[in-house]
Amino acid sequence: MSTESLRGRVILAGGTGLIGRKLATALQEQGYEVILLSRTPGNGKLVWDGETVGEWASALEGAYAVINLAGETISQKFTVNNKRHILESRVKATQAIASAIANCEVKPYWINASAVGFYGDRADEVLTEASVVGTGFLAETCLAWEEVPKKHVGSAIVRIGVVLDPNGGALKPLMKLAKFFLAGPAGSGRQWMPWIHIDDLVAIFMWLVQQRLPGIYNAVSPHPVTNREFMQTLSGLKFIPPVPAFVLVIIGKLIGPDSSLILNSCRVIPKALLDAGFEFQFSEIGVAFNDLLR
Description:
By secondary structure, the chain is α/β, with parallel strands linked by helices.
């Protein structure tokens, strides 16, 4: 193997999810040794419970980087128990990694995931990494999620927006609705959607690993769109009957996902990434859909 193989070892928690699988492949293609932390053994993975420090922690000693994407999906009904699991799955995994890093003599560069839910429902306000935390369950969860890595000198926090990938996430069910002309705007359709193409998201993580930059970064396209524009671009139609907000609220309470994931407005800009010189491949929603849906 070429000298690219000497780049180092990257520990990846949450590496079996939508983002993690593509990120692991990208890291390996660039010559990094990738070790996954997983609840299930096999295929070179290290077993962890996502809560406590175990034998897996020794792999962090001298590693080039550790990336934490672990956390239970938020695309579900927001019951008391589900909300507790969503919060604890993020906070406990982050605390375990922080403890493992603290015990390392040669500490790895640490990237910890978060989400744009940090900003809450903010109407038309333009939001950057310097904006204050919002209100509501998602904002409170992100605030608790970020508490430990914010104290860790040299770490990076990546606040991820709505990830667009035809093989999973939010886009797949919307594509099915669009085929039957059912992908209308949600509620008023005026709420802002902070979206990102999966390839740009993976590129952000790769870029941070290579640059080893500390700080907080909004992983979203430089050009957020309203829900109405998003749905019109996806369907190719100028008008589709909207889905009333009260219907989404009822569905969220009965079976999920919670309506806040669709109705909250979050006009987020990736100022820190742009200022640091990162270049997006898919800045415009139309260009992104042309690539994803071809």
